[in-house]
Each structure stands twice: as structure tokens, then as C-alpha cells.
Amino acid sequence: MEIKIYCNYGVLGAEKRKKYTFGGPDSTANCFDELMVEIPEGWEPFKNTMGKLMVKAPWGWDYEISEVLQGNEKPCFYALDKNMNGHRCYLKTID
Question: What's the predicted TM-score (pTM) here?
């Protein structure tokens, strides 16, 4: 599945790096780019009861996309599993 994310520049508190957001650009960004990305394999997208798009991690936990979306050079999903081990999955950008 493909989703639209935003690569924000000049965000307060992150002036020297990119900040990726889902659902809209950061309100403090100087400028931003829209990107289409693919959700990584093993991460299952679904809508919750409120109609919000979320993802189920490979270990079965549910997350809002904004909770797990990170990255500087490349966007990625980053989350901790039940053993507090971090998992990073990079998102493929669609041209």
C-alpha cells in the first residue's frame, strides 16, 4: 500500500534535519515536500474504529503511523517490540 507523507524542513527543534510527518506538514516547517511511499512488507495497514489509518507491526502491535514514522536521510518506521528491542524498516519512495 502507498501513503502520502511529508518531508519537513526547518521544523522548530529539528532545524538542521528533516522531519517526516503523516496526515499533513508540520505546522512549524519552513517548507515541505510531499512524498509517496510504500508501507514495508510485514507492516499491515488498517483503519481503526475512528477511520484513522494505522499499521500492525510484524510482532502484532498496532501503531498510529505518526507514532512510528521517523528518519532523517530516509523515512522509516521505528518501533519497540515487547522485549524493548528496536526495529527500523525503511520506506521505499515512489517516484
Answer: 0.87
